[in-house]
Amino acid sequence: MKAEDLKYSDIITIEKLFQAWDEFKREKRGKKEVQRFERTLEDNIFDLFGDLKKKTYRHGTYQDFYVADPKKRHIHKSNIRDRILHHLLYTYLYGLFDKYFIYDSYSCRKEKGTHKSVQRLATLSRIVSRNYSVECWALKCDIKKFFASVDHGILKKLIARKVKDENIQRLINNVIDSFSSELGYGKGIPLGNLTSQIFSNIYLNELDQFVKHSLKIKYYVRYADDFLILNKSTRLHKEYLNAIEDFLADNLKLEMHPRKIFTRKLQWGIDFCGYIVLPHYILPRTKTKKRILKKIKQNNNYQASQSYLGYFSHANTYKLTQNLKNNIWFWTDFPLQTKK
User: Would you tell me how many other CB atoms lie within 10 Å of the CB of residue 123?
Assistant: First the structure.
């Protein structure tokens, strides 16, 4: 059955709740809270199903903490019961909305992601520069406090365009209203909720459609709240900026970060999603490279080192990768000794 045809009773079935649990628990089996929940799994799932069926479900509170990745981020974590529901709703909303998103939206989508966005930027820059024979300029922008600024009323209206079942709407609104950011009641979606990924794409798809169809900008790439426009010159950049700023303010109650608007020439390197795109090359950010090498030396963590090798594999870093592999071998066989 197509997502458009699903009713409330179709999406809150026991089978779908167990499927949501299976998706949630991946790579989390070692966590004590997950193990405790699993000891009485059937009771917990049937309790959740009962609340959903009776329409008495209420989203719980959040546990908040900070992480540095490397930027400091304020994370809000739901309880397991709520996160199972998030997986259920995410699957439903993804199936309903993803086909309406533009091709060059890369955040939290199947067969997309940061590496694909960087590869796409490299491809588009080659097209705009005619195989690097003419200039290519990038206008790079960032939305100020995006996750904290999402307006609940606007988000609900955007979702209601496709979700016609009132009970499904009510359940989704329950999740949306469970959180308010420091900007006030009715504002914000939490970093940490799986549903926030699809909510953000639904919200910023309005910007994508405006850029592609109203401004008719051909070379545009977005990852989360970062986006850039490629052109052969900077002549239209101010016009684009003014139009986008007005659209964001009038339609989405958002604003661009004034200190994160950059114009870059391809020959200087275009910084996007952790990499620098240049003619013929993709390189890792210098700061990122230094941070990774420092972490490996400090932590002597083989598994983490493999993920870092994965990061480098998407750039032109043969010598660096070989050096890193040699160091991983050395640190694994001869771990650093702490002084007594």
Answer: 13
Tokens read off for 255: 């604003």
Q: pTM for this structure?
A: 0.87
DSSP 8-state code for residue 102: -
Sign of the Cα torsion 128, 260, 213, 156 reads positive
3-class state of residue 225 by DSSP: coil
More confident: 71 or 250: 250
Nearest to 11 by CA among 63, 65, 88: 88
Q: What are the CA-CA distances from residue 115 to residues 112, 191, 217, 223, 277 (Å)?
A: 8, 21, 22, 11, 12
Q: Mean pLDDT over all residues of the chain? A: 89
Of the pLDDT bands very low, low, confident and very high (cuts 50, 70, 90), residue 336 is very low
| 278, 282, 287, 292 alpha-carbon torsion, rounded to 10° | -170
Pairing of strands 63-68, 72-77: antiparallel
Residue 255 CA to residue 142 CA, distance in Å, equals: 9
Per DSSP, which regions of 167-302 are E strands?
A: 220-223, 226-231, 262-265, 270-272, 275-278, 281-284
Say how many C-beta atoms besides its own lie within 10 A of residue 164's C-beta.
Answer: 12
- What CA–CA distance (Å, rounded) separates 28 from 194? 15
Query: CB-based burial of residue 144 (10 Å sphere; 0-12 exposed, 13-18 middle, 19+ buried)?
Result: middle
